[in-house]
Amino acid sequence: MPVIALMLGGIVWINVSKLTLTTQTSALVQETRQVEGETVLLNAELGQRDNEVTARAKSELGMVDAPGKDVRYLTAPKHPTLP
């Protein structure tokens, strides 16, 4: 009889431990989702501020965007002593 009681107590202990782990995992998943949501909002705010800084620089410094078709890449000749 004591062996059966010990086995049943072990089964209850295992189930309580599993329930605790499940609860902790759920809390961690919820916290992760919250942090991911905050990251999305912060990235959106950063993009907006970046656009504001770019627009301000353009207006105050007279900067303009270069047309895509006018962009040319240059290649420099290799120096004979450099690899």
Layout of strands and helices, then pairs:
Elements: H1 2-61
Primary descriptors:
83 residues; mainly alpha; 1 helix; 72% helix; 0% strand
| Beta-strand residue fraction | under 5%
Major beta-sheet overview: none
Number of strands: 0
User: In terms of per-residue confidence, which ranges show pLDDT below 50 for 5 or more consecutive residues?
Assistant: none
- Share in helix: over 70%
Task: Give the averaged pLDDT, no decimals.
Answer: 88
Task: List SSEs in N-to-C order.
Answer: H
In short:
The chain is mostly helical and 83 residues long.
Notes on the structure:
With 83 residues, this protein is mainly alpha-helical. Helix content is 72%, strand content 0%. The protein has one helix and no strands.
